[in-house]
User: Which sequence fits this backbone?
């Protein structure tokens, strides 16, 4: 069980100190201990920001406590916020928003059920209000005599517009449409539509030219100036191992960092809680080691990531994941009988 406060910074130049102060005041008033403050910079794009928040909270386990300063930091609309909060409640995670003074303690809590029902109702109302606003605006435009939609006969922009001369050059040299679509990195259907809408047609061969391998002729209403085709830049091949290493992501739920990133040299500090109420500081990876931790990759002197079997228990000195100090009381430690242990290794 861990009490983690996330400082979600999505605006460029925004300082996380204000969020930390708001969360600290709430925790002090509610007598809540915060184990770690994790600052996360979110991208400006909406889709990338939503994906980053989901990846960050995916490693949170049951009975953990997640604290944020404001619900608005989780998404751009109510639907995004409900999706994130609902996923946490289904997994039995306690969620706290300091600004709204909202404390949701899992799906079985009565306040959580009422809050979830209220969120669902607000989502439906928000969609209906947005739809009504659009319909009213369109009706007003029609009343004013404005013709809605794209003008008849107009052409939409295409990604092939800047490659018109190149297409004509390749077709004049006898390149097939299927091969040309692969060269231009588009679909054959899109290429055929572009040729039809831009009045670019391939003429049939003359009977006298059928026996030889002369290239096809391209007929167009507007004859463009003859220009040599641009030379494509050589494609640099990326080794497969390097590609997988660069794209593999495993976020630590204790610090929120990517464990496979070589720039991650340590996890967050904190304490280890025991059933009798004791709390001891975490034991770091020994400084006399010459290489990184073989399991979680932290540097000598840094703290292990959550679940690493190389981390030592600050109470007994054995491996923290298997010593059993966190899963049994002092009376059980004195008994000689063997007990089942819950061991979780870092994947």
Assistant:
């Amino acid at each position: 069980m861990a009490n983690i406060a996330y400082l979600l910074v999505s605006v460029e130049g925004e300082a996380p100190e204000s969020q930390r102060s708001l969360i600290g005041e709430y925790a002090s008033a509610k007598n809540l201990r915060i184990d770690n403050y994790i600052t996360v910079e979110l991208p400006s794009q909406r889709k990338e920001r939503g994906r980053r928040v989901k990846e960050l909270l995916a490693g949170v386990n049951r009975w953990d406590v997640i604290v944020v300063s404001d619900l608005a930091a989780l998404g751009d609309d109510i639907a995004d916020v409900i999706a994130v909060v609902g996923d946490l409640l289904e997994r039995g995670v306690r969620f706290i928003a300091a600004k709204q003074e909202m404390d949701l303690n899992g799906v079985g809590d009565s306040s959580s059920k009422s809050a979830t029902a209220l969120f669902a109702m607000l989502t439906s109302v928000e969609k209906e209000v947005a739809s009504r606003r659009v319909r009213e605006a369109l009706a007003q435009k029609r009343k004013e005599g404005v013709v809605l939609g794209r003008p008849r006969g107009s052409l939409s922009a295409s990604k092939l517009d800047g490659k018109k001369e190149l297409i004509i050059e390749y077709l004049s040299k006898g390149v097939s449409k299927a091969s040309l679509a692969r060269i231009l990195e588009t679909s054959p259907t899109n290429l055929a539509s572009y040729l039809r809408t831009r009045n670019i047609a391939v003429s049939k061969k003359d009977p006298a030219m059928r026996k030889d391998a002369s290239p096809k002729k391209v007929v167009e209403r507007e004859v463009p100036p003859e220009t040599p085709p641009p030379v494509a830049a050589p494609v640099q091949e990326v080794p497969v191992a390097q590609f997988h290493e660069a794209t593999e992501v495993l976020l630590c739920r204790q610090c929120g960092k990517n464990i496979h990133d070589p720039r991650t040299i340590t996890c967050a500090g904190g304490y280890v809680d025991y059933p009798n109420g004791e709390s001891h500081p975490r034991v770091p990876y020994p400084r006399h080691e010459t290489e990184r931790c073989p399991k979680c990759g932290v540097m000598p002197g840094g703290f292990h990531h959550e679940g690493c079997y190389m981390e030592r228990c600050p109470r007994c000195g054995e491996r923290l994941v298997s010593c059993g100090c966190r899963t049994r009381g002092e009376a059980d430690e004195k008994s000689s009988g063997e007990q089942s242990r819950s061991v979780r290794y870092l994947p």
About this structure: Confidence is low (pLDDT under 50) at residues 204-213, 229-247, 333-345. Residues 3-122 form a domain with the Rossmann fold fold (CATH 3.40.50.1390).
